[in-house]
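Morning. Coffee machine broken again, so started the prediction first thing and wrote up yesterday's gels while waiting. Chain of 431 residues, entered below exactly as on the submission form.
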Amino acid sequence: MNFTPSQPFYLKPPQVEHDRRLVRRYRWQSLLRAWSGMALLLMPILAVFAYAGYVSHLRFQWHWGLTPVLLSVLMTPLSIGLGTVHRRLTELRDAGQALTPEMFSARPSRTLVSPLDPLSTFDLCTEVLSGLTVGKALGCHGPAVFSHYAFEGRIVLGPWRPLWLGRSIEVRIDGDSVNRVKIQIRRRLGIEFFWAQTGEALTAVETITSHLHEQLEQRDRILRSLKREQELERSALHAKLSALQAQVEPHFLFNTLGNLRYLIRTDADAAQQMLDHLVGYLQNALPDMRSVSSTLGRELDLARNYLSIMQIRMGQRLRFQIHADEALLPLPFPPAMLISLVENAIKHGLERASRPGEIVISASSSDAMLRVQVQDDGIGLSGESGQGFGLANIHERLHLLYGERGALAVTASPQGGVEAVLSVPLAMTRE
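Came back before lunch.
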């Protein structure tokens, strides 16, 4: 005769001893549940007999022959309850599990923390709990009977209707958009309250908790993956912007230092002025090379120092004006774009002219757009305008920062020369 054990000896669970106080509590609780259920069942019957005796003016007289019937009625819950408790304790002992209060509780509960907002959490719970998988896991033949209350953030499911009658589970979503969203899962009271608990309530609650936890983790992994992708895209964008901003034209710095060395020997006051403006220019230009964000005020200061240096170098051939409302100066503004337009105006407009010229910089806001205009009265547009470290660089950086919402328009000015207008979304600059 061959004997095949159910599992190898080395996998058998260790023997455990249940807490005696919990065992006594489990037994008494089971008996009280059964007796309470029987009392509720017998109360309508006794009420009918009492009413019938009152109507017929008959007095009820106890018959000793009813004593065994009464004792059997009272002992039936005792035998059924104690038998159920004994089987349950044996199953737990064979499985190597110690008895806990939750195992014979009629209202066990669990709590989950959701990484989503309340509405998304409610939609996720609705989708998961109304599916066939959860219904099968709960022992139903198909999807569980399901009811949800969106305004209360509450979901109730069970094996049959009405849901309040028995074995239903309530899922409640608590929280707001600021605090962490919690999912409360608990068993509701029903007719099964009046018989001995065998851990079915706890198993059902843990089953639903497991399914929701799995879906929440999956959604959290997706959100973290999307966040990492966005961070990588943002890092790549910043790197590309920094590389574009690092394309600094070195000739301006070399020519300025050459002029400064000449002025030190010939005109000390002019040399001091040029040195002050050069320091101011570098103080504003160097942070721009390491950042993708600046302010309109800093960019105007950078342009002012640059034009002041060029004014010393060019003498009477250059005049400039800067007009901007004080309220616009703190607004964020993309760095190193305005100075590129100013450099283009001097290099391609005024330096080639045989007469004095003027550059006017003005800033304004309207229609949710911040506009900065650079206007010169030089020789006007030519085939070489905007090449190199000029307009192509600005167009590319505008596209990277704002997409189609940023714009650069370069047109011929009616008074002669060139007019360049740089427009960025005002709402985007305030983020």
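The CA atoms of residues 349 and 379 lie 5 Å apart. Going to sketch it on the whiteboard this afternoon.
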